Amino acid sequence: MLTQTSLNVAGDFPLLGRTVRDGKRLVYLDTGATAQKPTAVLDAERRFNEKHNAAVHRGAHQIAEEATEAYEAARAAVAGFVGAEFSEIVWTKNATEGLNLVAYSFLNATLGLGGTAAERFRLAEGDEIVVTELEHHANLVPWQELAAKTGAKLRWISATEDGRLDPASFDVIGEKTRIVAFTHASNVTGAITDVPAVVDRAKAVGAYTVLDACQSAAHLPVNFTELGVDFAAFSGHKMLAPTGIGVLYGRGELLEAMPPFLTGGSMVEIVTMEETTFMPPPQRFEAGTQMVAQTAGMHAAIDYLNNLGMDRLAAHEDQLAERMLEGIATVPGIRVLGPTTPENRLAVVAFDVPGVHPHDVGQVLDDQGIAVRVGHHCAQPAHRSFGVHASTRASAGVYNTNDDVDAFIEGLKQVVKFFG
C-alpha cells in the first residue's frame, strides 16, 4: 500500500470543519457529485459581488469594464488549464448544458440553419451516433433526442465485467458514424478511458468526438488539444468552483461553423425585423446575462488547483483509491462495480452490498458522519450492465486523507454487522 502523500489541505475548506449527526466528524466522500470549495473560491466570488458586480460586454463605465475583465480573465485561465485557445472556451451553466449545446447545434444545422458552413454537421436518416454503456445521462439523453429528431441511429460501446469500455465493441464505430460521445472517466466505475484509442477510431471514419470530462478535469492533468477531441464539457462544481458554471471546449474551426443553440441578447451582431447575424465564438454561444461572479470563483479554483499541481493531486488521489479498494476487499461480501485495482482509475468507487439497499447502506454510514452517494448516479444503463439497479458510491477529492478512508472502511464493517 502507498503511504499518505504530503497533500493535506482540508483546512482550506471551511465546510469540512463542521460536525454532523450529534457532533460526529464529517467524512465527506461525495466529491463525485459535488466538490467542497476552498476559502479562496468563496472569497473570490464574494469579492466580485462586493467590488465589481456589473453586466459584462455592455456598459462603458468602470465597474462594467472591471466585470468584463474578470469574466474574460477567467476564460483565459480555463483555456490554459485544459490546453485550449481562448476563443475555444464557452461558458455554460454546467456540463449538461454544454453537451446539449453541441447536440442542438447539430440539430439546427440539420434543419438548415447556419448556412453552408454548418452543412458539415447535418445528420440524415441512416447516420449513426455512438455513445457508451458507461455514460452519465447528460452524455446519453441528448444524443438519444438528437437521433430521434434526425432519424439517425444510436449505437453504443459495451462495458466489460470490470467496468471499462470493451475494445472488442469499438467496431460499432463505422463508416456511418457521425458522432462519438464518451466519458473520460466513469462516474460509477472510476475507470479512465483510453481517449486516444477512441479518438483514433473516430477520426478514421471522419466522426466528431465529444468528451464528458466532468470526472477527469478536477482530478487529472487534462489537455484537450493533445487528446485530440473535437468537443469536451465539464462543470465547475465538481472542481472546487461554484455551482452554476460550466465549460464547453470546442475546436476553433468547428465553433466558427456551428449555428447557435440559445439566442437573444449579447450574442448578436446586427438585428433587423427580418433577420439577425451572430457574433463569432465564444460569444455566439453565450446568450443573455452571464454568471459572472461564478466565473470569478472558477478562476480562483483553477488557480488553487494549479498551485497544488495536478500531477501531485492525481498522485494523492491514486493513493486514496488504492487504500479504499484494499480496505473494501477486507469487508466480506461487498462487490465493487468497476476495476478492483488502482491502475487507470479515479478514487470513485461504487459498490453493492448484496441484500442491502444502497439507501440503507448510506443511512448507516451517514449516522457515523460519513457522506456518500446512493442511487444510480444518473447512470442507469451502467448499473444495468452490472445487473443492479443502484449502488453506494464513495468518491474522494483533494481534501481527503487516509483517516477519512479508514473511517469509511470501519463504517462499512458496521453496515455488514448491522444487516448481518
UniProtKB/TrEMBL annotation:
UniProt keyword terms in alphabetical order: Pyridoxal phosphate, Transferase
Listed cofactors: pyridoxal 5'-phosphate
Short name of any one Pfam family annotated for the protein: Aminotran_5
Single Gene Ontology MF annotation: pyridoxal phosphate binding
Principal EC category: transferase
Protein EC: 2.8.1.7
Domain Aminotransferase class V: 27-408
Catalytic activity: (sulfur carrier)-H + L-cysteine = (sulfur carrier)-SH + L-alanine
GO biological process: cysteine metabolic process
PANTHER family, per database record: CYSTEINE DESULFURASE, CYSTEINE DESULFURASE 1, CHLOROPLASTIC
Protein family membership: Belongs to the class-V pyridoxal-phosphate-dependent aminotransferase family. Csd subfamily.
Biological role: Catalyzes the removal of elemental sulfur and selenium atoms from L-cysteine, L-cystine, L-selenocysteine, and L-selenocystine to produce L-alanine.
Protein name: Cysteine desulfurase
Gene: sufS
